[in-house]
Input
Amino acid sequence: MSMLEFYAAAIPGTETALCDEMHELGFASVRLNRGGIPFRGEPSEGWRACLTSRIAQRIQLLLGRFPCPSEQALFDGVAAIDWSPYLSPEHTLSVSAVCTASSITHSGFAALKVKDAIVDQIRARSGRRPSVERQDPDVRIFLYLANDKAAIYLDLSGEPLHRRGYRKDAGEAPLRETLAAAILRMSRWDRTSPLVDPMCGSGTIAIEAALWARNIAPGLSRPQFGFERWASFDPDEAERLRTMRGELRAAASSQSPRIMAADNDPDVLDMARSNARAAGVKLAFKERDVREMQGDQAAHTVVTNPPYGVRLEKSPLFCREVTSTFSRLHGWRVCLLAGTPDYERDLSTAPQFRRPIKNGDLDCVFLVYDIK
Ligand SMILES: C[S@@+](CC[C@H](N)C(=O)[O-])C[C@H]1O[C@@H](n2cnc3c(N)ncnc32)[C@H](O)[C@@H]1O
Output
């Protein structure tokens, strides 16, 4: 079986967490890289990555790399790839491009050239051409053009992998599930001791913690991945994928430590409850103001994403009161994905771990404190 080169795309700032995860999941030739993690394997390793990675945003397959000093070189390089395993004239496609430090500077134009080369190849073979579909294409193609070198990737994921399928309702500023999984790994939580998110919103962090603790593969709740829509995906492959899903389901455990999701907003807590039900995990829920937390129980890990922005500006005292509550949780580990510098400033002691992370367009910092 041929070894293929894949790429697991990461949210900026989560690359080391994704690299650790890919090593732990047993993928081969895993390398730490800015933006994502390359790995190698037979074709089904790409499927396994879609089903099992909690942190990757997308899994992509490298189809070709070539020098690309001109428009013609781009067209010829794409035309040299055999597209028939992926696309028939009945399929729809989308092409995205990123161009840096290259002769071709316009990404929209580069994407169009790639699309033309693919469509021309299929039309020359069959007399008909696949059409472009931006919202929900059967096949997604990516061009990365840097320093006049092109790399063409095919997406295996379809919808981005943070869309696990369990989150029907979201409150204000929900975290992507992949980012929640990344900060849980960075928190170094042991998956067996109690964990609490005291400002849980739609419950993403607590749900991802429970899925991880029980070894429930995150892709099992997804009805379909992108690779299942490729032209070559046949009933034999569908059967092998069903077997892989069955093995992953069998590897899940029913044991979970106590994981609590709390918030002071009862409507938001209702959403978290229904999301946890949809994800098939049991959490403890509590309606409580975070400032009433007490450190009088066995040490917990706190992983949370406190409010920021307009809501916070209305109450300048809030940060100070929250950080002073956290400072009284002696022996606990407190981990914050903070969207404002106020929490770090108010906690005054240096964090054990600090990592800038992009949360959508927002620059955040992930902070870990062992409270003495
Ligand atoms: C940034 S959101 C958390 C989003 C969450 N991580 C998710 O994925 O949906 C912050 C949450 O803090 C909650 N919150 C605000 N003030 C609070 C307080 N005093 N006590 C507890 N929760 C509070 C809000 O209701 C909101 O759900």
Notes: Residues 170-175, 199, 201-202, 204-205, 263-265, 268, 289-290, 305-307 surround S-adenosylmethionine (CB under 6 Å). Residues 4-155 form a domain with the VC0802-like fold (CATH 3.30.2130.30). The chain has a mean pLDDT of 95.
